[in-house]
Specification:
The chain is an alpha/beta fold. It has 7 helices and 9 strands, in the order αβαβαββββαβαβαβα.
């Protein structure tokens, strides 16, 4: 227990350069661990802590990666949700996305492949920061103590005014000019249903 507390204290003190004020986040993006990073800060985080030490995962669906693109440098895809194309959500005007029942086992396979321990840094990215927050909380419940949520995700937040109103053009991986591609690496995106 002492080791876990020391690791958490070290994480908070050593990563304060990546401070995101939780009071500025929507409630969907707030996590129990309180470890947040903006997409534009990820390359420096990876350089500082060593790409070989940080597990960097995309929690979007395979379809999102295929049609929207993927950040370069991720270690893999572990979808937090699965789309159901035979069910329609009238309120959201989209197909239903339910939690991935195999999320933990798929995550643990990626963690084992990378050699990630429960106290090692883990970065989670999704479309806009909501699923990465859910994923961080889920992993925290399973004993992972150093899970960071990329609060603005791959596509960023919705614009609230002007020509970008209603478009994901405010921040995020793509809008920050970070490297990404439509070309997917089979080893990183393959998962078993």
């Amino acid at each position: 227990m002492r080791r876990v507390l020391l690791s958490l204290l070290f994480a908070v003190l050593s990563f304060n350069a990546h401070a995101v004020d939780p009071a500025q986040l929507s409630k969907e993006k707030v996590t129990k661990l309180g470890l947040y990073i903006e997409a534009k800060e990820v390359p420096a985080f990876l350089e500082k802590h060593g790409k070989d030490k940080v597990l960097f995962l995309d929690l979007r669906t395979p379809e999102e990666m295929l049609f929207v693109g993927a950040p370069e440098g991720i270690d893999g895809l572990v979808p937090f949700g699965i789309m159901y194309y035979d069910k329609w959500d009238e309120k959201k005007s989209t197909y239903v996305r339910n939690p991935n029942p195999d999320f933990l086992s798929q995550f643990e396979l990626r963690a084992m492949d990378k050699g990630t321990d429960k106290t090692d840094p883990i970065l989670l990215i999704c479309r806009s920061g909501d699923r990465s927050a859910l994923g961080a909380d889920f992993l925290a419940r399973h004993g992972y103590t150093n899970v960071w949520s990329v609060v603005d995700g791959f596509e960023g937040d919705m614009g609230k005014e002007g020509s970008n109103k209603g478009r994901r053009a405010v921040n995020g991986w793509k809008n920050s000019g970070l490297p990404w591609s439509y070309r997917l690496d089979k080893e990183k995106v393959h998962f078993t249903k």
